Amino acid sequence: MRSYVLERQILRVFLHSWFIALGQSSLGQLMQTSKWGFALVEMAHLVALAILGGALLIVDLRLLGLVLKGESARTIGRDLSRIVIGGLIVMILTGIALLSEEAGKCYFSPAFRWKMALLASAVLFYFTLHRRALLHTDIGTPNFWSRAAAVLSLTLWLGVGVAGRAIGLI
Amino acid sequence: MSLLQHLCQLLNDSGFGTAIRESDYAYSIIESIHVITITLVVGTIAILDMRMLGFILRPIAITRIARAVFPLTWSGFVIMFISGFLLFWAEAAKMYVNPAFKVKIVLLALVGLNPLIFHTTVYRRAHEWETLHLPPWRARAAAIASLTLWGSIVVAGRAIAYF
Fold first, then answer.
1. I want to staple B39 with a disulfide (CB 3.0 to 4.6 A). Which of A122, A144, B3, B43 is the partner?
2. Interface membership of B151 toward A (CB under 8 Å)
3. Model ipTM?
């Protein structure tokens, strides 16, 4: 069986060059030199975190049957997904700007890599199995699988937050 | 030196304050808890505010959403207050002169005033309008004030580190 060593090496070089290019872009230059640029983007990132986190929390607590029992999980999920998607877009855009400040360093940061892996898993899960659990539960009491989906969703998103916080610390 | 400044200095120099400040992990861990709990406080109250503005969850009565959200907001607030106080304890002398910290305290006082006014006025007759898709303008004004103030508190809180 082939181990794709060379392919992985190429992909890694390719990705790293993207990070370097982001750091050297005009956005990166602005973030590195402007006194308040980084601070302002960081603030926007945090406000979006609050909105996104609150919406995800309410959806998952409904899926667990802990809040708004009897109200349609489908409606709550659909309505709040607008907030989730809006929040995610702001977080990703501001996140790219924050990354550009020291992209080369972030590429090697284990916290950053964990955050990206968890984010990808959380987003993928949110639009697939998590969505099915919301549709399936609707106005009823959640079954075991729906509760498991809510717990996994909360864990993944909390993981994204914790790993994100760790980028600046380790 | 004013009494308040003296008190801040005392807290700052106390054994516990010094221990948090000088520990390798304590300050960062408390700060991380403080940051992540933003979602629990600001995020949940924002859901209620956005419902009052008629953006989301229109089929659900406002009082129902309020009952679901308030326990979360309050438990988040307790965590926020304790972790925030510990962070203040460790850096009290610096905080006394930090402009962003002062702004944050004023904003927190204002954001506390908002529900006080809201609950004693327009929310008292919530049963008359709780199922409306678009609540009366006074409720919407309270929601806008809440969103603006909480957003500003997050911004001022982050700004503390830059002074």
1. B43
2. yes
3. 0.91
